[in-house]
Specification:
This protein has five helices and no strands. It has a domain at 17-100: Up-down Bundle (YheA-like fold), CATH 1.20.1500. The longest helix has 29 residues, at 81-109. The chain has 126 residues and is an all-alpha fold.
């Protein structure tokens, strides 16, 4: 068995997975809706402002204000069906690929690592 062929097969299976299909559909819907796309772009812009302010060691008050604005904007994302589906499908896909990586790691090392259901029960995540 050729490891590269097996990796290619895994990649194809991931590309054809229900999780990837859902994410691609959600991305396409998001791209086709200017209001939802604007909401998402504004959220990304606010995230970047928070990161920049933190890295620049801005005043705590300024960072807190930016974080509050970001959190308020996140409420809007969750109220919009298109952006909510995109975020939910992205979370599901990320969890799916993380689990696959954990299975691969286990096969190589015998170490189970952390699982979402056990998170916080070991010192590995912290």
């Amino acid at each position: 068995m050729d490891i590269f062929e097996t990796a290619k097969q895994l990649g194809t299976m991931l590309a054809n997975s229900e999780q990837m299909t859902r994410l691609k559909n959600a991305e396409a819907t998001l791209e086709g809706d200017s209001a939802a796309k604007e909401l998402m772009n504004k959220y990304k812009e606010l995230q970047l402002k928070v990161v920049r302010a933190s890295k620049a060691r801005a005043e705590k008050q300024e960072i807190d204000a930016l974080r509050d604005e970001l959190m308020a904007h996140q409420v809007g994302l969750n109220e919009n069906a298109i952006t909510k589906e995109y975020l939910d499908s992205k979370t599901d896909f990320d969890t799916f690929t993380k689990t696959i990586n954990q299975v691969i790691t286990y096969a190589m090392t015998g170490d189970e690592g952390c699982s979402p259901s056990k998170c916080g029960s070991c010192s590995g995540c912290h």
